[in-house]
Design brief:
It contains 13 helices and 11 strands. The protein has 348 residues and is α/β, with parallel strands linked by helices. It is globular, with a radius of gyration of 21 Å. 48% of the residues are buried. The model has no long low-confidence stretch (mean pLDDT 96).
Length: 348
């Protein structure tokens, strides 16, 4: 693969949206008080309150793993358990960070599409108040899931109602929440606080920012000492203005929505093109900016050299193609042409 060419491995591989990059440049003037006591951070937090609600508490952090871990640490004790999908990022891709930082046991539920439902969670609650058992405290879901599938608002409300009726909190890993909201055609508030989410890890990195995530509390529980938890967790940024200014640009003129809609539409276009190829099978509903598929194993490495992507499930040969805010129709057409060419040569 040529250096710096656009592939389909991850939206983490994309660059920075020009408006976000300009916001960083604009913030690079003179001196500002460090650690978030500056005008840029105040403006970013104001934007968050406009988007998510006036009563939310917001704390900016550097990474998605940091957002997940610190949010969960704020509302748990070491004897608690965190319930999530088997495929969830905090279970599979965070190197045991949730367990390491919270001390909690992670209880993972198998799910074919990455979503979990109350009837799957209920059997894990049989040991409540049994001192020999880890005590379930938080349900953590990904929106969208690691398969690119989306919880409907109705599904979220059922989950939150179930959680609260069992004295559980509902955490949302929203690393790609913008894509989910764009898919549902709703506001970020409608798919979080208004749906009963208690705490949110909100991502910007995968949707046009250089770096930056946020922990958003809709429930005041966990906020009292979160500043200390963030500092101890090494996520208090000294030159916070360069993190904060990105979020202001991200929310201005609904850039988050524009970027997410574009990435989603490119995934939809890619899926439509793939459906016309008999040797390819799409394995998950395409709702956001992820396409999961199988193809003949003989061509995978050759295709990866031209258009880098990952094999998501090696046991079943399932590939994952991710589109980004900067993916173009030409990128997709080149990929489809190369895929068809390799398949034709395979059959001759």
């Amino acid at each position: 693969m040529m250096a710096n060419s656009r592939g389909f491995a991850s939206d983490n591989n994309s660059g920075i949206h020009p408006s976000v990059l300009q916001a960083i440049t604009d913030a690079n003037k003179g001196h500002c008080i460090g650690y978030g006591d500056d005008q840029y951070t105040n403006e970013a937090l104001k934007k968050f309150r406009e988007v998510f609600g006036e009563d939310v508490a917001v704390f900016l952090v550097c990474t998605g793993t940091g957002a997940n871990v610190l949010a969960l640490r704020a509302v748990t004790q070491s004897f608690h358990a965190i319930i999530c999908a088997l495929s969830s990022h905090l279970n599979t891709d965070e190197c045991g960070a949730p367990e390491n930082h919270t001390g909690c046991k992670v209880l993972a539920i198998k799910s074919d599409d990455g979503k979990i439902a109350p009837h799957q969670i209920e059997p894990l609650l049989h040991g409540r108040m049994d001192e020999h058992q880890s005590q379930p405290r938080v349900i953590s879901i990904s929106q969208p899931t690691e398969f690119g599938t989306v919880y409907s608002i109705e599904e979220l409300k059922k989950l939150s109602s179930f959680a609260h009726s069992h004295d559980l909190l509902l955490h949302m890993d929203g690393a790609r929440l913008s894509n989910a909201a764009a898919s549902l055609g709703c506001s970020l508030r409608a798919v979080t606080g208004e749906a009963g989410i208690d705490l949110l890890s909100f991502g910007g990195t995968k949707n046009g920012m250089m770096m930056g995530e946020a922990v958003v509390f809709f429930n005041p529980q966990g906020t009292e000492y979160f500043k200390c938890i963030r500092k101890q967790g090494t996520h208090l940024v000294s030159k916070m203005r360069f993190l904060s200014s990105q979020f202001t640009a991200f929310f201005d003129n609904d850039l988050w929505l524009y970027n997410a809609r574009h990435a989603n539409s490119m995934a939809g276009l890619l899926a439509e093109e793939l459906k016309g190829i008999p040797q390819v099978r799409i394995t998950q509903k395409v709702q956001t900016n992820a396409v999961f598929l199988t193809m003949p194993s003989e061509i995978v490495q050759k295709l990866q050299k031209r258009h880098f992507f990952y094999i998501f499930d090696h046991t079943q040969g399932i590939a994952r193609l991710m589109t980004s805010f900067d993916t173009t129709k030409d990128d997709i057409q080149r990929f489809i042409a190369d895929l068809r060419g390799l398949l034709e040569r395979l059959e001759t």
